């Protein structure tokens, strides 16, 4: 059986930045509140579409892998902020990449989307159904943000990250994975007035990201920590075997709480929430790229990654680089 080796990676962060002082001129907030509650200092705001962010990240990942778009069998895009619903956004990215004939589809598991997509693409390669895939996570979260509401306006940003997977005999790539969803309380984090149910919500006006922050905080810490435990036992590994933790970047205090539960040292944890805020599915894809750039991830590194998001979805992965 083949493995799905990660042979390329790339990211795209739009250049426009809004820092905490600037956002304080739009809503009633301040740098001290945002920094101490979330760890966020800056967020990027895109003036181009999710498809364009995804295309740039994917092109960089393909260049890094040294392959061309036409070699791809699959373009899988994790996003909850698609440019278009029909046709799917992945089909436009496929066109932009020249990945003629490759399968192309979007997958939406909100903030857990990249790890969901990584498992789906890896499974296809390991089953021998395809040989080469690009897995992209791209989000334009600021499109959903109601800039009049300080609770959500300060949290989110835009960006994209991508990895190329290729069938290989080398035991690497995603080697253990756990994905799931607790749908019972799916309403504690949702956008009420998008999709074909919007007639029920029309009175609420433009998009509204509604969430119960404290409840999500607790569940995210528990969900991600337990998923990491599951994946470690699936891979027959101890925490000491892990070189790097790449967690979803929703709140610095959530990351620190997971770190504390798992007893992982600071220098093993990839954190960039101060720069980009919560880019939903894209946080882990971007953080993986930056961990490589920083030298935190080196060849053969054992990486643990975990995410939690709307659904309520959760995911954890063990990746051999
Ligand atoms: N600036 C200043 N004050 C604010 C702001 C703001 N931007 N936002 C809220 N407040 C006020 C509230 O109005 C409230 O005031 P009150 O006490 O007078 O009513 C006070 O701050 C405390 O609000 P809390 O919601 O209790 O603050 P908390 O410490 O829980 O932090 C936060 C809120 C940052 C959202 C936190 O709960 C959190 O990070 N939760 C998990 C992440 C999350 O929910 N992300 C969005 C979903 S996406 C995901 O990735 C899972």
TrEMBL record:
It is an enzyme of class 2 (transferase). Homodimer. The last Arg residue of the ACP-binding site is essential for the weak association between ACP/AcpP and FabH. The active site is at residues 111, 248, 278. This is Beta-ketoacyl-[acyl-carrier-protein] synthase III. Its EC number is 2.3.1.180. Belongs to the thiolase-like superfamily. FabH family. NCBIfam families: fabH, PRK09352.1.
């Amino acid at each position: 059986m083949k493995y799905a080796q990660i042979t390329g990676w790339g990211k795209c962060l739009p250049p426009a930045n809004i820092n905490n002082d600037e956002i304080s001129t739009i809503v009633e907030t301040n740098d001290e509140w945002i920094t101490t509650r979330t760890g966020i200092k800056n967020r990027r705001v895109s003036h181009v579409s999710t498809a364009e962010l995804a295309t740039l990240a994917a092109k960089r990942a393909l260049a890094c892998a040294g392959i061309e778009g036409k070699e791809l069998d699959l373009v899988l895009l994790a996003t909850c902020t698609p440019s278009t619903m029909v046709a799917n956004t992945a089909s436009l990215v496929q066109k932009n990449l020249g990945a003629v004939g490759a399968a192309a589809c979007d997958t939406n598991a909100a903030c857990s989307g990249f790890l969901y997509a990584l498992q789906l693409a890896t499974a296809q390669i390991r089953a021998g159904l395809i040989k080469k895939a690009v897995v992209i996570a791209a989000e334009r979260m600021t499109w959903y943000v109601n800039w009049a509401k300080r609770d959500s306006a300060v949290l989110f940003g835009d960006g994209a990250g991508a990895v190329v997977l290729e069938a290989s005999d080398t035991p690497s790539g995603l080697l253990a994975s756990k994905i799931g969803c607790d749908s019972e309380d799916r309403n504690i984090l949702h956008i009420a007035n998008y999709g074909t149910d919007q007639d029920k919500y029309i009175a609420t006006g433009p998009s509204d990201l509604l969430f119960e922050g404290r409840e999500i905080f607790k569940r995210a810490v528990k969900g991600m920590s337990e998923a990491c435990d599951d994946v470690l036992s699936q891979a027959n590994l101890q925490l000491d075997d892990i070189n790097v933790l790449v967690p979803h970047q929703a709140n610095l205090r959530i990351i620190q709480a997971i770190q504390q539960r798992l007893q992982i040292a600071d220098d093993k944890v990839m954190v960039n929430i101060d720069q980009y805020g919560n880019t939903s599915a894209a946080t882990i894809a971007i953080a993986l790229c930056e961990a490589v750039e920083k030298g935190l991830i080196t060849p053969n590194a054992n990486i643990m990654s975990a995410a939690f998001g709307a659904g309520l979805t959760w995911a954890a992965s063990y990746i051999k680089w």
